[in-house]
Amino acid sequence: EGMAMIFFLLCLYNIIKVFLNNELSASYKQKIFLWSILYANLCMYTHERYIVLLPFILLVIIFYPDRKKIFHIQKIILSLITVSSIILPFVIKRYIYSLPIFMGTGYTTIAFSFSNSFSQLIDAILSIFQINSGPGYLVGIPFSSLPLFDMAISSIIAMSSIIIIFMYLYKTHKALTLKFIATYRIINSKTRKAFALKENINKTYFYVFIVLCVIFIFLLVPAITQVHLELRWFQAPLCVLILIIILAISRLLIRNNILKNIILISFVLLFLWSDHNYLYKGTDNLYFNLSARIVSVFYEAINNGTIRPNTTKLYIWEKHRNPDRENEINWAFA
Fold it and tell me: Three-state SS string across the chain, please?
């Protein structure tokens, strides 16, 4: 997971670099795209779910706004390399390893269900915004099980994140409207050039904002099509969300830098507090930790003779059916 995350961040860094550095030559931008494709491949072969990076890169190449910096022949070459990278793992999986193309964790078959995917999408978005949603063995501590103070902190993070994003969108919409008006009303050439330069900077960061939002959606696709949602699926989209919020705060018209830094530091501290509650307080509830404890019980029972070494069947009696606990036991015996 950690290695895949490093490759993902390097891939994302190169993509954003293409948008932020408008003065780069066409050949240099082509090299940057090639690096992003390389990191996407390394990421995908480290963990298969990151295959969604390649279709995303293909979209960026096709719809890259600055035609003067990336020529049509360069776009065709980059697109062919990206498409080949998408097809190759399916060929390897199907014809070399003889495995189904769509297969989940533990060789589980992936069967798409719209209702299940939509439900998991809601849970995923809530969890990424620090409102953990789902059973304890998958999310550690659900939001409803938090102490009242911790619930308030998580709610503040979620609401403030949404407010910051909408404030940035409102500010950008207002700036684009002013640009449209200024195009026709500003007569002085110097004033028009200064205004155009400022708006080009705003437009560049807005492109980056759109890129981050699109890749956020792409990264959710493999998570919501699995049998169960797990916290590890949210690492990459959570990183992207943090970048979106930081970009939005940095582009808001807060003239007082001290106030802006206080907002950023407060957001980071609240986020760390929420992460501490979910990660460290709920880690013992996660399926692999519970499964390890369940295994240790059976291991002790085998050692002390309660369960005989040649036993082939175990019957587990439940007073009340608990699907979550049954899943934990299945993981333990797997």
Answer: CHHHHHHHHHHHHHHHHHHHCCCCCHHHHHHHHHHHHHHHHHHHHHCHHHHHHHHHHHHHHHCCCCCCCCCHHHHHHHHHHHHHHHHHHHHHHHHHCCCCCCECHHHCECCCCHHHHHHHHHHHHHHHCCCCCCCHHHHCCCHHHCCHHHHHHHHHHHHHHHHHHHHHHHHHHHHHHHHHHHHHHCCCHHHHHHHHHHHHHHHHHHHHHHHHHHHHHHHHHHHHCCCCCCHHHHHHHHHHHHHHHHHHHHHCCCCCHHHHHHHHHHHHHHHHHHHHHHHHHHHHHCHHHHHHHHHHHHHHHHHCCCCCCCCCCCCCCCCCCCHHHHHHHHHHHC
Q: Cα(328)–Cα(334) distance, rounded to whole angstroms? A: 10
Q: Cβ of 36: how many Cβ atoms within 10 Å?
A: 27
Residue 280, pLDDT score: 73
Residue 106: is its pLDDT beyond 80? no
Dist CA 158 CA 125 (whole Å): 10
What is the Rg, in whole angstroms, of the alpha carbon atoms belonging to the chain? Answer: 25
pLDDT in tens, 136-147: 767 778 888 888
Please give the average per-residue pLDDT across 28-53, as a whole number. Answer: 92
Burial of 327 (0-12, 13-18, 19+ CB in 10 A): middle
Question: Poorest-confidence range of 59-68, 118-127, 144-153, 235-244?
Answer: 59-68
Q: Which two tokens stand for residue 4?
A: 């895949």
Strand partners, 309: none
High-pLDDT (> 90) share of the chain, %? 24
Contacts of 219 (CB under 8 A, 6+ apart): 52, 236, 237, 240
